[in-house]
Every structure is written in structure tokens, then in C-alpha cells.
Amino acid sequence: MTNNEKPEPIEENDLHAYVDGQLDADRAAEVEAYLAGNPAVAADVASWREQNEAILAAFGSAGAVGPDDLALLQPARRPVWSRFAGAAAAAVVLLGVGGAGGFLAHDRLLPPAVPEALPAYASFAGEAGDAYLTYASEVRHVVEVPASDSAHLTSWLGKRLDYEFTIPDLSKEGLSFIGGRLLPINGQPGAMLMYEDQAGTRLAVMIAHNDGARDTAFQFAADGDVGTFYWIDGDQAYAITGRYDRARLRAISGDVYAHFEG
Fold it and tell me: pTM here?
């Protein structure tokens, strides 16, 4: 960079690469200068570094994880608004990857003791993805109850889930609510709320019972072009699934999180 050139703005990808040790010395110095002037972001970055260390401490000694595997194991990194960011549980909750295993992590990344630490919630992202693929392509029967009868929908689903909730408004994300349906998730009643953008791309918000897993930060899973952000809070598990890139899904998930946790 010459004296007349302005440094490129620091973006989230730069911060992730900095934590993962993937920046050259000049760019790393620029990030460090940025962090010095942005203490809130610096705190997030410090928590991400702690997550890396926790993951390596949990798996590295068994030879299960190398530096290239961290991206598969890290929880989705969120700004300060996520009160679960940096949770200790992140060290043992794995991100799903595509392929024959669907949304579940490759077995090779799991040391023997870990599966017992992951309750039925570990399959939630897979079920959310399967449900989305089943219903998002429907033309006439994508939902059981249309948006025009939202009061009945939330009353009915709320009783089945034993969880009173309202429908998130995602209009600022360009998404219109079209209705919902009852789903079986992990053998218990679950809810699917379906949205659609002007191009006809659909997005589903899933609500399910938590079968005992601890609260978690956002996790991300992908199967082909379908992505899912999911997390746990108390008795509920939530998933946001759609054919959007990770950044867009993350933004939408932030709105959904704020709705349910606000």
C-alpha cells in the first residue's frame, strides 16, 4: 500500500481470518489498529480466540482436530447482541456439513466420548433442512394455515408446543409471512413458519422442543444451497432455513432471535 492509498475497510471476514492466523503481517497490523479503536469488537474477537483455544483443548490432544478443521467446529460468530456468544458449550457442539451425512458433522471429527454429550438436538438442523426441502417447493400446500388466519395458527401451534409465541415480522428483510404448519421434530410437536420474498424464494422458521441440551450460540449447517442457522434457549430450539447465502441468513436470524429473545 502506498502513502496515497487508504487502507481497505476492516470487515467481518478479516476479523475471522485474523483470529485464525490467516492474514499477512500488514493486514494483521491493520486489523490490530482497528481493534485498538473499537473495544466492543475487540471483545468479540477475544471471545472467538478463546473458542478456538477451547476447541483445540477439547479435541486437539486426541489428534481429531487440526487448524483446517476449526472452521467446521466453531460456532457461528455473532456480534455482541448474542448473549450466548462464547458459551463453553461451543467446544462440543459441531457444525453440520453437506454430503451423505446431511447436516450432521463428519464422524471423524468426533472423539468417542462426545456423542453422549450431544442430545437429540444434534439432529435438529437435519430435520429442519429436510422439512424445508419437503415443503418449500410446494405450490398449493406449502402451509396448513395461511397468514390470513395467523391468530388461529399461533394459538393452535402454541398449545401443541406448550409455548406461547408471536410471528416474527421479517418485512424489513423483504420477506412476507405466508403461513405455517405443525411438524414432528425429534418425535414431538414442532412448528414451521414459512416466509417468501418477491422472487419467490422461501424461508422457514422452525420452533421445536429442546430435549435437554444446554443453551448455545448460533450454529450453522449447510447442505448444498440450503443453509440453516440454529440455536437453543431454555426449553426451545430454533432454526432458520433457506436458500440464501450465509451472510443473509445470519442477518435474518438476528431479527428472529431478537423477536423471540427480546
Answer: 0.57
